[in-house]
Amino acid sequence: MTFRKTIAAITLLSGAALCATAQAQSQPVKTGEQVYKETCVTCHGTGLLKAPKFGDKKDWAELIKEPQATLTADGWVGVRDMPAKGGKPDLAIEAFARAVAYMARSAGATWKDPDAAMMKQIQAEEKKALDKKAKEAKDGKAKK
Ligand code: HEC
C-alpha cells in the first residue's frame, strides 16, 4: 500500500468509527411496535400467563379505562405475573410506555406515544406504584 492509500484508508476507518459512535449516542427511542415485537409479544401475543392479548378488546376494556399514566406505571413496576419492565432490565421507561400505548391502541384506545408531560405523570405514578408494591409486600399480600 502506498503512503497516500494508507492515509486514505485510515481516514475512512476513523470516519466510520466516529459515525458509529454518533449513532449509538443519538439512538432514538424505539417505537412501541418495535418494543412490543422484541419484548412483549411473548406473553401479550398469545395471552401466556393470562396476559391481556394484543388486539383483544375484551382483555383490554377494563385496563384502558384507567388513566394512561397509571396503567403504564403499574405495568412498569410489575403486576402479579407481569414482570417489571416486561422482564427486560435495560428497557427504558419511555420505550416501555410506547409499547403500552401501542397495545392499548390495538384494543381500541386512542392513547398517543407519551410526550414529555405524559412521561412526567408516568414517573409520578411510578413512585406511587412502587410504594403500593412495597406496602403490599410488607402486608404479605401479593394482590393489587
Ligand atoms: C412474561 C410474560 C410477560 C411479558 C414478557 C410482558 N408481560 Fe405485560 N403482562 C403479563 C401478564 C401475565 C399480565 C396480567 C397481570 C395481571 O393482571 O395479573 C400483564 C399485564 C400488563 C399490563 C397491565 C397492567 C395492569 O395494571 O393490569 C400492561 C400495561 C403490560 N402488561 C405491559 C407490558 C409491556 C409494555 C410489555 C413489554 C415491554 C410486557 N407487558 C411484557 C405478562 C407479560
Polypeptide structure, described:
The chain has 144 residues and is an all-alpha fold. It has 2 domains: 1-29; 31-139, Cytochrome c-like domain (Cytochrome Bc1 Complex, Chain D, domain 2), CATH 1.10.760. Helix content is 62%, strand content 0%. It has helices spanning 3-25, 32-44, 57-61, 68-77, 93-106, 116-139. Mean pLDDT is 88; it is low at 18-23. Bound molecules: heme C. Residues 35, 39-40, 42-44, 48-52, 63, 71, 74-75, 79-83, 86-87, 96, 99-100 line the site of heme C.
Strand content: under 5%
The tally of strands reads 0
Described by strand count, sense and barrel closure, the largest sheet is: none
Q: Which molecules are bound in this entry?
A: heme C
Termini gap: 69 Å
CATH-assigned homologous superfamily of the largest domain: Cytochrome c-like domain
H/E topology pattern: HHHHHH
**Proportion in helices:** 55-70%
Mean pLDDT: 88
Give the count of helical stretches: 6
Give the overall shape.
Answer: globular
CATH architectural label of the largest domain: Orthogonal Bundle
Number of domains: 2
Q: Return the CATH class of the largest domain.
A: Mainly Alpha
CATH fold naming of the largest domain: Cytochrome Bc1 Complex, Chain D, domain 2
Radius of gyration (CA) equals 21 Å
The SS-based structural class is: mainly alpha
Contiguous runs where pLDDT drops below 50 for at least 5 residues? 18-23
